[in-house]
Amino acid sequence: xxxAYKFLTPKMTSxxxxxxxxxxxxxxxxxxxxxxxxxxxxxxxxxxxxxFIMPLHLSGNEYVLYKIEVPExxxxxxxxxxxxxxxxxxxxxxxxxxxxxxxxxxxRIAKLVCKNKKWNEWAVKWLSGEDRSKESADSAADSAADSAAYSASASASASAYASESFVDKEExxxxxxxxxxxxxxx
Length: 186
Description:
By secondary structure, the chain is an alpha+beta fold. It has seven helices and nine strands; from the N terminus they run βββββαββββαααααα. A four-stranded antiparallel β-sheet has the order 1-6-9-4. It has a three-stranded antiparallel β-sheet with strand order 5-8-7, with no helix packed on it. Strands 2-3 form a two-stranded antiparallel ribbon.
């Protein structure tokens, strides 16, 4: 079994008010493994990734994070994973990622795919603490030819854009988790 993570409401429901119970295994028997469909259940392969990406997939902050078990992942987009069967094991504490950490993570992830020279120069200065002014950020975003740089201020959106730019979703997922762990350990 693979350990994964899932957000549920305080009433232990997910999309379309699907009700979950701790210790119960839920399985989707229909064919297919398309992401964001009724063919699969979604989850995350790391609690820090779940917390970082949560604003992209869910609105509000009342969600509870649970550790789950899945027999296998049948698909992933680099950010979230899909399985045909999931078992909720236990509630876990949500990691704390500050606003500044989210911005740093987003910039580091955008740097994986952004090739715009002016934006990258700004990013290096922001990451070093040399220049974090709004004017510099606006100027760098205006000069960027791709939306990854512009999206850096919208942390989860930058990650989604970067994920789309990677052919190897497993490689992207690994790099993203490494970045989040590094930033959160500071």
